[in-house]
Amino acid sequence: MNKTANLDQVITHFRDGMTIMFGGFGGVGSPPSLIDAILEANIKDMTLIGNDAGFPQIGVGRLITEGRVKKIIASHIGSNPIAGQKMQAGTLDVLFYPQGILAEKIRAGGMGLAGIVTDVGMDSLNLDEKQLVQLDGKKYILEPALTADIAIVNALKADEAGNLIFDKSARNTNPIVAMAGDWTIAEVEEIVPVGGLHPEEIVTPGVFVNQIVQSKGVNWTWAWETSI
Amino acid sequence: MGMGDIDLRHRIAKRAAQEIEDGMIVNLGIGIPTLAADYIPAHYEVWLHAENGIMGAGASPARGEEDPNLCNAGGFPITLTKGGSYMDSTTAFGIIRKGMLDMTILGALEVSSHGDLANWIVPGKRVPGMGGAIELAQKAKKVVVVMSHLDKHGQSKIKAACTLPLTAKSCVDLIITDMAVIEVKSQLLILREVMPPFQPEDVMRATEAPLILAPDVKSVV
User: Fold this and answer.
1) CB contact under 8 A, B90 and A52
2) What does the UniProt keyword field contain (chain B) (predicted)?
């Protein structure tokens, strides 16, 4: 089955109030054309799940800046002062998890697991908010898995079956996010026919991917471009 | 004192880099810790790890050679060293949690005399989120903290006990500031080196937590 679609086709899957999981780390590896399409379709009241809040005009930061996001589950928002202002003003609900634990909660969701067990944060997180379990006489935090209505990811190449390969550090959270959505849309630089990718190089098997769209490319200015 | 002083930032980074040994796997935090990479001897085989999914992070690219899809965890363009690899973020954090990092160099808001670290939240003021700091502080074999000795109100950031929410307990092994190098050993703070022009007395006076003077306090070189 050829999973190639255009932006008009993929946007029909989005509704107000949905939980949307996104790939990317500081905007690197976040899908620019899909974020644009969500903005243009006026989707609002969304809950975002992903590593961070991007920058005000980079990655998912733009959705927060435009006031479309009611809640974000992330590991930090430090690079997006607008997210911080909205959090202080009470217009953005923010839930933090340690970075690797958030990633592992997402991976668990994609892997069909109910949750993970970890000692990360036993000394520092508010354990009143956590469910604890005992294993071999030691206490651990039980963290439930995370899934989403829609997952949006960015990849270097897809074949028409949705098999994905990524580009350098833009891989980051994309492979795990791709697995954790009920409906996964991949924005890619290049689409090749089935058989055009070597089976050994495929990182995300196409069975996890529902639709692929051609990227129009990054349309924001990176923070480092303004500081050099 | 201002940590905006470029020369001072580099002096701290250079001293921090002296903790890095040949063959180590190291994670450098954002800011001054990143600068330490410039002071690792060229003949060392050091593997720099980045949370976003890199083992073998290399030097900054030449201007105009930046690749937007090859950045460190702070979002700045880097290169990949020979033998380096890319992975997803869960694998990058698996490397941290399994205790494979020989060292991490991190910034801090406060460190206590017990080696407790606070670096992720100022309640009611700055709430950026913890990022990967809890995992790094809790799981790296050696934790080196680089920071200004005093906060912007002139108060010691090395406390008898942390006042801010902790990142991790009893995790810090070495503190490097613009005034001194202080070792945390058996829940005691030992003043090992002073940063010129400061004298040991200056450091003792500026530090809230009790310090033990090493028998041979040196100057940072």
Assistant:
1) no
2) Transferase
Backbone φ/ψ region at A192: left (φ over 0), alpha (ψ -120 to 50), beta: beta
* Sole residue written with tokens 């921090």: B16
Q: Which tokens belong to A199?
A: 């089976």
Chain A interface test: which of B72, B89, B138 (most A C-beta within 10 Å)? B89
Nearest Cβ partner for B76 among A74, A96, A224: A224
Query: Is ipTM > 0.95 here?
Result: yes
Summarize pLDDT for A19-62 with one digit per residue, the tens.
999 999 999 999 999 999 999 999 999 999 999 999 999 999 99
Q: What are phi and psi of A183, to 5 degrees?
A: -140, 120
Domain A7-100+147-217 superfamily per CATH: Glutaconate Coenzyme A-transferase (3.40.1080.10)
pLDDT band at A136 (very low <50, low <70, confident <90, very high): very high
Window 84-103 of B, Cβ < 8 Å to A: 86-90, 92-94, 96-97
* Alpha carbons A120 and B102: distance in angstroms, whole number: 18
Has B51 been annotated as catalytic? yes
- The CATH number that applies at residue B211 is 3.40.1080.10
- Nearest-CA residue of chain B relative to A178? B88
Interchain contact B129–A (C-beta under 8 A): yes
Which listed residue (B19, B21, B45, B51) is catalytic? B51
Side chain identity at B96, as an amino acid letter? I
User: Which residues make Cβ contacts (< 8 Å) with residue A164, sequence separation at least 6?
Assistant: A153, A155, A157, A158, A174, A175, A178, A186, A188, A202, A203, A204, A206, A209
Q: What is the span of the domain harbouring residue B21? A: 6-219
Long-range contacts of A66-72 (CB under 8 A, 24+ apart): A66/A39, A67/A91, A68/A38, A68/A39, A68/A43, A68/A44, A70/A45, A70/A46, A71/A47, A71/A95, A72/A47, A72/A48
